[in-house]
Amino acid sequence: MVQRKITRNWSIPKGQEMTDFDKKILILQNAGKLVPKRQLIKTPEQIEGIRRSGVINTGALDLVAANIKAGMSTAEIDRMVHDFIVSKGGVPACLNYEGFPKSICTSINEVVCHGIPSEDEILEEGDIINVDITTILDGYFADASRMFIIGKTDPEKEKLVQVAKECLEIGMQAAKPWTPVGNIGKAIEKHARKHGYTIVRELCGHGVGNAFHEAPDVDHYNTHTDGMILVPGMVFTIEPMVNMGMRDVFIDEEDGWTVVTEDEMPSAQWEHTFLMTEDGLEILTY
Questions:
Q1: 180-227 pLDDT per residue, tens
Q2: pLDDT digit string (tens) for 99-151?
Q3: HEC string of the chain?
């Protein structure tokens, strides 16, 4: 008989009494489930810090929504967001992150994510663009992105943007306390496939809050595995990248960042930062 290996992430600190919360996690762990490490469970103080960072992040996206238009360069959007975040006492997390040269990501049409703002990149009527912003405030991170349609676009792109938003919402509904993270991707991919779309597999959502990227990975497709159990106090993003064509992508060799669809068909993405509670998800960014 082969004994299943149990990953023991959860333990009771010496001198601390076991709570009902501890018992619930230990029961899952002893049943062979992958549970989070204790440091992934945010304290009330940390949650409040992430929430405050989320308010600034949401304000930055609202500012983009009020000003984005045809004829604007993506560099102009970058400066506008940078100045707003700094004016609120925050720090743009993307700037200089692993060498990324700008404060936000701007990904147009066939660019899936990590597009680098540029003076030469001018928005045109009919473009769809994802603006991805992460803010640090007092050491706490909040991460979100929205899709914007520039003027009037064709029905196919408009539908893609809408279905991508629905994928995020369906992923939210699938994320329940004390259930596996893998349920999120199963629900998202099912909805995307129903509309003839595909999901990018090379990138995923992630834990966030005390750092830019934490555990767990949040895949947006059916991995046929459960993954980590989501428990109250965890903070993470859901950010499905939905392609109109094939799911295959490549990274631009020139800049080493920009992720593009292999078939150059459009892609769309929406993202929120969430807090898991006993009652389900609370959105910390909009």
A1: 999 999 999 999 999 999 999 999 999 999 999 999 999 999 999 999
A2: 999 999 999 999 999 999 999 999 999 999 999 999 999 999 999 999 999 99
A3: CCCCCCCCCCCCCCCCCCCHHHHHHHHHHHCCCCCCCHHHCCCHHHHHHHHHHHHHHHHHHHHHHHHCCCCCEHHHHHHHHHHHHHHCCCEECCCCHHHCCCCCEEEECCEEECCCCCCCCECCCCCEEEEEEEEEECCEEEEEEEEEECCCCCHHHHHHHHHHHHHHHHHHHHCCCCEECHHHHHHHHHHHHHCCCEECCCCCEEECCCCCCEEEEECCCCCCCCCCEECCCCEEEECCEEECCCCCEEECCCCCCCEEECCCCCEEECEEEEEEECCEEEECCC
